[in-house]
Amino acid sequence: MGRYTNSQLRYALVYVVITSIALLILNIFCSNISQELFNKNKEVAMIERCQLAADEISKLEVINPSTVSDAVSRMESMNVTRLIVTDHTGLIIHDTYQTGSRYALFPEIVQAMAGNDVFSCHYHDGAMQSQAATPIVSYKTTLGCVYMMEYDTEQGSLIQSLQTNVLRITLILEFVVILFSFAFANTFSRRLRQIMHSMHIIQQGDYSHKVKLGGRDELTFLGDEFNDLTERLQTSEQKRHRFVSDASHELKTPLASIKLLTDSILQNDMDMSTVREFVEDIGNEADRLNRTTSKLLSLARIDGQQIQESEIINMAPTVEKVVHMLSGIAKKNGITMECDLTQDSPVLILEDDLYQIAFNLVENGIKYNVPGGNLTVRLLRQDDNALLQVSDTGMGIPEEALGHIFERFFRVDKSRSRASGGSGLGLSIVRTIVQRNRGDISVESQLGKGTTFTVSFPIFDTEVDEE
Ligand code: ADP
Predict the structure, then answer these.
(1) Which residues is 348 bridged to in the sheet?
(2) Which 3 state secondary structure label does DSSP give 365?
């Protein structure tokens, strides 16, 4: 795990950087807007006052220091830091600073002489210095100009406190963002690491291990899915293990018999007829071995095989073939076979599969029958299904074994089944084949009275058929 970088931490970092940039831009924007708003306000107020003064002065009959000074003192709200009134050459007529200089040629005054209303403002060291100038105009002639300067610490500190507050809020927000981003990233990574750790444990072969994640998010869902997967893996691993051990046991038994028989022949002095008997037994065991391996092979084949091209066929001809094939053995065992294949129906199936199903069921009906017993093979219809029914009047199956007979290597009476060449694989093969052909199989049995196996497939009726 050490080789991998922490992606969540990387996402959190990217997130923090993006929010920092956004907050910084917002901060600058807020400060600028607030300052601009203050400036605009100031500009309007100061220009208005300059114009008011210029208006009053323009009405004077004679413009000289005493008339201007009178006029200024008459006007209310002229308490600015500095007020200068000049004539059209820039010569000072009135100056609240009384610096002694005769000309005031500030850039604002020069521009105002050209007929403009001028305003400028600078902000530094917590104070705001604003300057405004307007021309004094009478009958379209510029007589001079009014210049005002205001040094405002109150407004300056207001702007400064606003900017500090915005900055403070920004920093707090950023801190919260960083805190949450890393907390979330850490929780997410921890949970992810938990899953990865579990994966590692399961990879080592401990299928019983479970991922335990709290919460109800996607990771919990992922953990649950992962647990389901390992559960299925565990089940299939157990099945595989059981199958391998059962199969090797099945193969070992006849091999052990063969070894015992050959040892007996080699170690004892026997007459020819006894040797022949022993060799016959060896042959029987070899046959059984052969049958078991071919069933195992066919099981392995159908397990890994997808259904091949099925065809729509009538069931009767195939079932008839099976019955014909096994009639000799039935006769030998004293079993009477009856057939009723009149209710034949077309089904979608692989013919070889149908043959194998019918063969295994009829063969079992003979094998597990009693001398003088009956075996009936019927084709029936029920709703939209075609049924193949194989009933015998044999030994029957005990109730507790009914649920297991389709399991691999299961045999009710091991010695009898083995004696009749059974491997416990036939019904398991039948069920797998039935299911892969979209069919169903069921069994009914009464101990000592007989057994009925019913296989059903959906009828594949392309045309309306008449009985
Ligand atoms: P086997 O190869 O041993 O016959 P199967 O899978 O075909 O294996 O059958 C499993 C077990 O079910 C048999 O061993 C037998 O005990 C029981 N069984 C199957 N068919 C019948 C039947 N028609 N009547 C009684 N018992 C049966």
Answers:
(1) 312
(2) helix
How many whole angstroms from 323 Cα to the centroid of ligand 1? 18
Q: Name, in order, each residue with C-beta under 8 angstroms of 394's C-beta and a sequence gap of 6 or more.
A: 365, 368, 369, 370, 373, 450, 451
Helix and strand numbers, DSSP H then E, in the chain: 11, 12
Rounded distance between C-alpha atoms, residue 381 and residue 66, angstroms = 130
Q: How far apart are CA 456 and CA 388, in angstroms?
A: 6
Ligand 1 and 357: CB distance under 6 A: no
Give the tens place of pLDDT for each residue, 198-253: 888 888 888 888 888 877 888 888 888 989 998 988 888 887 887 788 788 778 87
Residue with tokens 């959190």: 12
Alpha carbons 45 and 380: distance in angstroms, whole number:
106
CA 42 to CA 36: how far, in whole Å? 10
User: Would you say the CB of residue 390 lies under 6 angstroms from ligand 1?
Assistant: no
Q: Does the CB atom of residue 413 touch ligand 1 within 6 A?
A: yes
The rounded distance, in Å, linking the Cα atoms of 302 and 436 is: 9
Q: Is the CB of 397 under 6 A from ligand 1?
A: yes
Ligand 1 mutation target, pool 427, 447, 449, 452, most atoms within 8 A of CB: 427
Distant-in-sequence, close-in-space partners of 269: CB < 8 Å, separation ≥ 6: none
Find out whether 362 and 375 touch, Cβ atoms under 8 Å. Answer: yes
Handedness of CA 200, 205, 206, 211 (dihedral sign): positive
Ligand 1 contact, 135 CB (< 6 A): no
Report the predicted TM-score, pTM, of the whole model to 2 decimal places: 0.55
pLDDT, one tens digit per residue, over 422-444 is: 778 889 889 988 998 999 999 99
Rounded CA separation 461/145 (Å): 110
Q: Residue 334: phi, psi to the nearest 5?
A: 75, 35
What separation in Å is there between the alpha carbon of 249 and the centre of ligand 1? 19
Does residue 369's CB lie within 6 angstroms of at least one atom of ligand 1?
no
- Residue 354 Cβ inside 6 Å of ligand 1? The answer reads no
Nearest atom in ligand 1 to the alpha carbon of residue 390 is: 23
Taking a C-beta distance cutoff of 8 angstroms, is the pair 68, 55 a contact? no
